[in-house]
């Protein structure tokens, strides 16, 4: 009880942090801007956050983070609009929404689908923030138990999870994570002041800036992709009536909504896992426990609830490893980390101990944000859907112009712009081949954390076992081993499945060369048999008596 | 947000071999340069060595990309008929790569030559397995340099001519270039450019320097333009 009373006092103290005109404005801009950005397919929160990042450096940390958090938290609401209406997810995490949302639109239930998506997203968002507000005092007690070695192991776990989460792309994801680690090492080594991979170039001595890389990989590459692509013809469905019915329908599925939100919170808290795993698990659970599993993928309201609730429960939870340990679990929180560093606010156990008001204020901001977004969507959806019609290549021009603000305002450096353009081209190539770029960003951020923490942790370690002699370190080490074992088991099972498929389909081929090849093999085998039979007649079989 | 996890489980094959080979070549060259580009300090702990993390990064790039390259579905390149039929050509081709590798090993010594011999092997495999779709894909990659060029021209002109005029001009010209010629689109492009400048430079006071050309403006107008546009 004491914990709750303490915490309520903290909420009261934190609300004063939010009661400022600039924070209120940031909340409004973040929520409305996030919905707009989410609703435009091809932009997404990563592009918007990357562009706005340098602009937030001149703001107070709480104001800057509120804008970014607003975009992060509300873009998924907006992303469900094109996913449901035109079968194109506004943000990547809305891909699962198209499975059940679009079929509902095709049978004339677009308003129902949108309303259900809004209410589910709202429930997921509020659920995660409420959970975290009540967990915050416990987190504040656990976070100081994390020393250098625990943070190193948590960062390592994060990298391993990010890599293994890219199923079927694990090897290239690992290579990209290592690329990120290497990029972070360029420049002066902080402990010995020796140069690393600078090739005697003065512009490389300061290292490669994370924001420049992020802007190149996310914003510029997206601009190039849009400029290179074609426009899509969009036909919108007219929506009439209110969007409140979804809340009633959601209330009829409390189990699916609750469990999906829980999956979102738990998966969001684990670095490197994120929305996709949460969605996948909640969708699978909803399908397995449904009375009508055959409807999933064909316009099932339960499927829509599971997908939207899970993905909106993640942003709040994803702030936990960032704030409590200083470890970002994904690209967007990695970008937010730079805002902390610019303002000399170091996220980690000390933040929870010394500046709890700030942490709770962020959660309250997220709570208010969800309310603002739903209120905005309930009244403005009909006008908002028109943004879907903005032509792709024009969007590319807009992103290119906005990217300039992001890169150039950082240090007014032409070199930064050239590096960003280089990463933009690299990101474009990666996008064309559907290879993962997120591990690069996480490799850069987590690589830096691991380097510093391992160095300080090893100073007190004499034998390898000393590294995991504390309970949290041992648990984290156990988790790393478990994740790796599960991954290798899955690789082995996939391999076996592939081989079985190959074996089963090997005789089904009807191609002419395959027929010829089988015929040749048959003739050769038969001829071999004949020859062996002939030889047998000339040579007596050996017996034990000989 | 890991955008790519669930998207397109069957990735397009075009360009994969080429990309993996190019990435592997760069990683191998970086690995070969590790001794020159990083230091190993005497008396320092193993984990605190300046070379430790670059080695993890570059080593991981080489190992994982090589494994990825190895696992890629590859189809042998269809060589021209005369090449396929001429036994001497195939002998000469294999032999020339071997001579190159052995020559490198003799010239640099076996250990120093190892990364370069590996490079030779990568180039040979890429030559044997690249396809016409890879070459077409490479042309598409090259075409993006045009947009990067536009962006860099914009960056170069802003400090000279000014953020507002260059942004308006860039927005209009690029909109024209990508094929939107209607009055509506041109107006939209112009209004968008003005809004961007007003929001970021005038309102948020983002750090973009005043242009050289603004220096020629009279008195108060000069400082007004430098501060706001």
TrEMBL record, chain A:
Residues 25-442 form the DUF112 domain. InterPro entries: DUF112_TM (IPR002823). Keywords: Membrane, Transmembrane, Transmembrane helix. It holds the Pfam family TctA. The chain crosses the membrane at residues 21-40, 116-140, 146-164, 171-191, 203-227, 322-346, 358-378, 390-407, 435-452, 472-488. It comes from the Bacteria. PANTHER family: TRICARBOXYLIC TRANSPORT PROTEIN. This is Tripartite tricarboxylate transporter permease. The lineage of its organism: Bacteria, Pseudomonadati, Pseudomonadota, Alphaproteobacteria, Rhodobacterales.
UniProtKB/TrEMBL annotation, chain B:
Keywords: Membrane, Transmembrane, Transmembrane helix. The chain crosses the membrane at residues 17-34, 54-73, 94-127, 147-172, 184-204. It comes from the Bacteria. This is Tripartite tricarboxylate transporter TctB family protein. It comes from Aliiroseovarius halocynthiae.
């Amino acid at each position: 009880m004491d914990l709750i009373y303490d915490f309520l006092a903290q909420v009261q103290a934190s609300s004063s942090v939010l009661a400022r005109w600039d924070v209120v404005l940031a909340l409004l801009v973040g929520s409305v801007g996030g919905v707009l950005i989410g609703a435009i397919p091809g932009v997404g929160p990563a592009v918007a956050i990357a562009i706005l990042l340098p602009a937030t450096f001149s703001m107070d940390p709480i104001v800057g983070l509120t804008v970014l958090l607003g975009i992060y938290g509300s873009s998924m609401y907006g992303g469900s609009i094109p996913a449901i209406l035109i079968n194109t997810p506004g943000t990547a995490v809305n891909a699962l929404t198209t499975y059940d949302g679009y079929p509902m639109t095709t049978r004339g239930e677009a308003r129902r689908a949108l309303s259900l998506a809004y209410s589910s997203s709202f429930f997921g968002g509020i659920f995660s923030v409420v959970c975290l507000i009540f967990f915050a005092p416990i987190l504040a007690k656990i976070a100081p138990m994390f020393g250098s070695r625990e943070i190193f192991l948590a960062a390592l776990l994060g990298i391993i999870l990010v890599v293994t989460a890219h199923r079927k792309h694990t090897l290239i994801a690992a290579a990209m994570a290592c690329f990120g680690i290497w990029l972070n090492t360029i420049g002066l080594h902080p402990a010995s002041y020796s140069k690393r991979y600078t090739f005697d170039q003065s512009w490389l001595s300061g290292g490669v800036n994370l924001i420049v890389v992020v802007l190149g990989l996310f914003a510029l590459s997206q601009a190039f992709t849009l400029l290179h692509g074609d426009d899509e013809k969009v036909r919108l469905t007219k929506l009439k009536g209110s969007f409140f019915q979804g809340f009633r329908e959601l209330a009829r599925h409390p189990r699916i909504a609750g469990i999906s939100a829980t999956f979102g919170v738990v998966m969001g808290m684990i670095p490197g896992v994120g929305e996709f795993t949460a969605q996948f698990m909640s969708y699978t659970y909803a399908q397995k426990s449904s009375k009508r599993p055959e409807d999933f993928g064909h316009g099932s309201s339960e499927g829509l609830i599971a997908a939207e609730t899970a993905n909106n429960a993640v942003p709040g939870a994803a702030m936990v490893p960032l704030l409590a340990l200083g470890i970002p679990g994904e690209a967007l929180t990695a970008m937010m980390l730079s805002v902390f560093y610019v303002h000399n606010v170091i996220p980690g156990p000390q933040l929870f101990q010394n500046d709890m008001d700030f942490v709770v204020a962020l959660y309250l901001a997220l709570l208010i944000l969800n309310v603002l977004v739903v209120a905005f969507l309930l009244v403005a959806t009909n006008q908002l859907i028109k943004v879907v019609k903005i032509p792709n290549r024009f969007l590319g021009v807009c992103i290119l112009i906005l990217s300039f603000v992001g890169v150039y305002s950082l240090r007014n450096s032409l070199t930064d712009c050239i590096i960003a353009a280089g990463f933009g081209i690299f990101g474009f190539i990666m996008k064309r081949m559907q290879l993962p770029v997120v591990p690069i960003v996480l490799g850069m951020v987590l690589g830096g954390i691991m380097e510093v923490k391992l160095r300080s942790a090893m100073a007190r370690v004499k034998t390898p076992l000393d590294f995991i002699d504390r309970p949290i370190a041992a648990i984290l080490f156990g988790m790393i081993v478990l994740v790796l074992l599960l991954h290798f088991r899955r690789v082995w099972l996939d391999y076996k499945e592939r081989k079985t498929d190959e074996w089963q389909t090997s005789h089904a081929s009807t191609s002419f060369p395959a027929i010829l090849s089988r015929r040749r093999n048959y003739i050769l085998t038969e001829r071999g048999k004949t020859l062996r039979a002939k030889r047998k007649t000339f040579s007596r079989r050996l017996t034990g008596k000989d | 947000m890991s955008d790519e996890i669930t998207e397109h489980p069957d990735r397009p094959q075009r360009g994969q071999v080429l990309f993996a080979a190019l990435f592997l070549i760069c990683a191998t060259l970086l690995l070969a340069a590790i001794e020159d580009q990083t230091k190993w300090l005497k008396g320092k702990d193993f984990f605190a060595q300046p070379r430790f993390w670059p080695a993890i990064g570059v080593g991981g790039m080489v190992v994982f990309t090589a494994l990825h390259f190895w696992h890629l579905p590859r189809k042998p390149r269809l060589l021209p008929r005369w090449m396929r039929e001429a036994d001497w050509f195939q002998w000469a081709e294999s032999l020339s790569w071997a001579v190159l590798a052995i020559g490198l090993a003799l010239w640099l010594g076996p250990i120093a030559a190892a990364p370069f011999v590996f490079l030779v092997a990568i180039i040979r495999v890429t030559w044997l397995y690249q396809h016409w779709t890879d070459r077409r894909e490479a042309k598409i990659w090259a075409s993006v340099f045009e947009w990067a060029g536009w962006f860099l021209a914009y960056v170069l002109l802003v400090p000279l001519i000014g953020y507002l005029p260059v942004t308006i001009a860039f927005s209009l010209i690029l909109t024209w270039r990508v094929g939107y010629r209607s009055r509506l689109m041109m107006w939209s492009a112009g209004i968008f450019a003005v809004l961007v400048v007003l929001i970021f430079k005038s309102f948020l006071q983002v750090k973009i320097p005043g242009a050289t050309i603004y220096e020629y403006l009279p008195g108060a107008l000069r400082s007004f333009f430098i501060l706001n546009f």
